[in-house]
Amino acid sequence: MQTSRHLGVIFFPAYDWAISPTHPEREERLLYTQDQLREEGLFDLPNITEYKPEIATDADLERTHFCFPGPGEVSTESHLVAAGGAIKAARLVMEKQVDRAFALVRPPGHHAMKVVHGNRGFCNINNEAVLIEFIREHYGHKKIAVVDTDCHHGDGTQDIYWHDPDVLFISLHQDGRTLYPGSGFSDELGGPTARGKTINIPLPPNTSDEGFLYVIDNLVQPILDDFKPDLIINSAGQDNHYGDPITNMNFSAQGYAKLNEKLNPDIAVLEGGYSIQGALPYVNLGIILAMAGLDYSRVREPDYNPDELRQSRQITDYIEKLCDLTLKNYFKPPPLKVKPNQYDSRSKSVYYDTDGINDQQLEQIMVCTKCSGVRHLTSKTHSNSTCMGIEIPIDACQRCRDEGYRLLDEARRNFKGNTVKFINRREQEYLTINETELTPMGRYYF
Amino acid sequence: MLLGIDVGGTHTDAVIIDRGGVVATAKVETDHTNLIASLDAVLKKILRSKSGRLPISKINLSTTLTTNAIVEKQLEEVGVLAVSGPGLAPDYFNHDLGEHFHLIEGSIDHRGSLRLALNEVAAREAAADCQRNRLKVFAVVSKFSPRNPDIEQALAELVSAQSDFTTIGHRISGRLNFPRRLATAYYNAAVWRRYNLFADAIAQSIKKHKLDAPINILKADGGTIDFENSRKNPIQTILSGPAASVMGIIALSSITKDAIILDIGGTTTDIAIFADGAPLLEKEGVSFGGRATSVRAIGTHSIGIGGDSTITISPEGKLMVGPQRQGPPLALNGPQPTLIDACNVKGLCDLGDPDRSFAGLKKLAEKNSLTVVELADKVLDLALTTIRAEAGKLLETINQRPVYTVEEVVHGKKINPQRLYVMGGPAAILAPLLGRIFDLETEIPNNFAVANAIGAALTKTTMEIELFADTGKKTMFIPNLDIKRKVSSSYSLSDAQQDGVNELVKYLRENGHPEVTDQDVSVVEAEAFNMVDDYAVGSKTIRVSCQIRPGIEEEIK
Prior knowledge:
The structure holds 2 protein chains of 2 kinds.
Chain A: E1 7-12, H1 31-39, E2 48-51, H2 58-62, E3 66-67, H3 71-74, H4 77-94, E4 100-105, E5 115-116, H5 127-139, E6 144-148, H6 155-160, E7 167-174, E8 198-203, H7 209-227, E9 231-236, H8 253-263, E10 267-270, H9 280-291, H10 306-309, H11 313-331, E11 343-352, E12 357-366, E13 375-381, E14 385-392, H12 398-414, E15 419-424, E16 429-434, H13 440-445
Parallel strand pairs in A: 1-2, 1-4, 3-5, 4-10, 6-7, 6-9, 7-8, 9-10, 14-15
Antiparallel strand pairs in A: 11-12, 12-13, 13-14, 15-16
Helix pairs in contact in A: 1-9, 4-5, 7-8, 7-11, 8-9
Chain B: E1 2-7, E2 11-18, E3 21-29, H1 35-48, E4 58-63, H2 65-71, E5 78-83, E6 101-103, E7 107-108, E8 114-116, H3 120-132, E9 137-142, H4 150-159, E10 165-168, H5 169-172, H6 178-208, E11 215-218, E12 224-226, H7 227-232, H8 240-252, E13 259-264, E14 269-275, E15 278-279, E16 287-288, E17 291-292, E18 300-303, E19 309-313, E20 319-325, H9 339-345, H10 354-367, H11 372-399, H12 406-411, E21 419-423, H13 427-438, E22 441-443, H14 451-458, E23 463-470, E24 475-478, E25 483-486, H15 493-510, E26 522-533, E27 536-548
Parallel strand pairs in B: 1-4, 4-11, 5-6, 5-9, 9-10, 13-21, 21-22
Antiparallel strand pairs in B: 1-2, 2-3, 7-8, 11-12, 13-14, 14-15, 14-18, 16-17, 19-20, 23-24, 23-27, 24-25, 26-27
Helix pairs in contact in B: 1-6, 2-6, 8-14, 9-10, 9-11, 10-11
């Protein structure tokens, strides 16, 4: 048996919150999980303790996201409690009240990007990113690895840390050619100042335990050994399960528990997973036992049949090749054609499927040789017209820091839109400039 | 007239209460080896008093028999037949259950669906093994039996011919917690014979004293269970003594708000918390004899500071009050300076020979370059701030209990004590100081010397039941009462609440409590969730929990 560790579980099922009555993200999603955990008497075990979530504040959201027009418009109390659950997990681990923590909370968050106008992919607020920025705000700048094992590409987390060389983002998911959100391909490797610090492993449909665990052993582990993070966070989505109604993978509760044991994350945060009766009770139990270092060998779904779930030789070969390629991409990413100490831009179109919002973004990043680079973006939607975000990163050099304030000053004078958000992570200054505070000239021309 | 008896660890107390209040009290020393003799003695004494001749209408009895049997491991060997299915490995739940634990294959899931049939061959082998070992009492428990009792029923039938008594898991508790249900069922079976012999003796003793009134037995939750039912549920009678004391406080003071109760004894101070005038219960059940159980109990937190706590100063200069007690205070010819001696020095009381207190503390003070008054001040400050801090921690734990809706997290009730009640030997001495340090209005209940027996006399019956309905399967099940019924697919949450209340009232009326009405029952949990299959709203899963909260006979006060 493994050595046991003190695990804190923040269990928050939000029994009074749903996107809509028949939406997969609805009230009873974690009901059967709670039944299972209760019946197992899990919280009576001496090394597993249940905790109540905190309530995230607007400040927690605004140091992480550009919320347009503001945090109050894009989040509800349930989002603040879910993000607060992730914050509680961070606090428990950072203050050494527990060895490991699992925020078993909903609503989920990994599709929420840097810019937030509403709900996309069932997510408004990125719980992991709020957690990471909370840690950096209160416990200092840390090197953090996020390993996203949800079946859907963690495009939100990827977007938030695209330019951050100190947050390694690794996503294992079903190939984007076959599943929402249609991204997360091998060549998505991070921005010019954080090249190779975004790693995507698009897995073919019907990948089973064997394939997932191969990726952990032969790709994720060597990368983590090289990156040497201070903390590992697992975005613990559970929709790779063979019973999940909206995906096509063949992962099992035993597989999830083994993956977790190998990965050994400091903090896990629940993401998706919609086989709420057949999978979640067993997967969550397996993850909790693995995180607590307890015996999970008897955790299995009642209908579990490993022979039926075995992946084909073809899939195995494909995954082996994919791992070889991806490992090379991490250690020697193909260089980008950028000029040092000048702005590089990327434009993208983001669709908020739940709220039907179309967002056209243009982002500019300083390709700084000393830090991860000051960046600014404009975001154009029907609902909020044009908004601007400026961010001075936590590791900003003096030049990028001063450039951030120059951009702010210029926006105050010349921006022809309705809201400017300013984040200075280096000196922890956060500002919102509303339409009325922009110069009359700017408003007039808009 | 009500007769309350508390056969406690040191003393056996009895009171008779009439509308006007306490009309007679009696106290004898408890004979630990012969509890019936103690009961006899206290009955003899109280019934000889003038008021004792009046007709008694109800007898409430609190006894340490079951508690002692478990603590002293005077337990009968039990054949434990358990069916766990997938989940936690057996090492986590099969300990401290005697020598005859049998894990048998079979599985029921969280919705109560049978996923793997009971392995009957293995079950029969287990029963045969118990037969060879001459076991006569059994505990049969399956995982998720509060959702589907079939496996437990089958096991109970299998051993029925060879068993004198079988405890069935879902009858013990309708709450989900398999390891607690297992431990509780085991203890219940293990103390059953001893308890029933004792119950026979109680019945004889009561008869001998020519009393003809219904008998109720005190439980750990501050309520009672009728005598006949206690014979099948002896585990419910553990830890009833402390619960009786708490109920006594309610009887002696009108507690209506959030409050803190401190019971200061010689060795320890017990802290209990009240919300809106009702004592808070342990969340899932009390932990006892090395196992967490599903027995409902008033939550008390014990800290090692009491009136007789020894004062020590370590070689490094660290002052301690307790947790040791080495005897009475110096003032009463004890061996070591105690908290009460410090009170004597400060002039807060005038117990025994204060000069002895002064001399003892002075010796200790001088060794540590303090004046005697400085030392007494430090001792009092340490004792009181420790009690305050521990009460604060307990309150924080209660207020930080997990809740599961956005509404409760954001707007949930927090317990905010308005009053402090102090009871026990040193209460009068310490209450004013405690009131100051807690910054709360403080009250010392009268008559607290027999609060336990008063609590016993006045407390009423309590019971909790769970109801689980699945409109997809068209079933409704109340595990505690073994009521399983077909319901229509339109069965609603309000139907379920109604059924829960009705069945609880009906059961209690038929079991010694004709006075119980709907008004006594509160619905503590009521949830209905749509079960969506293939993205369409289909059936509902409904969970209801009803209880009769602990309370006292109001009209007597």
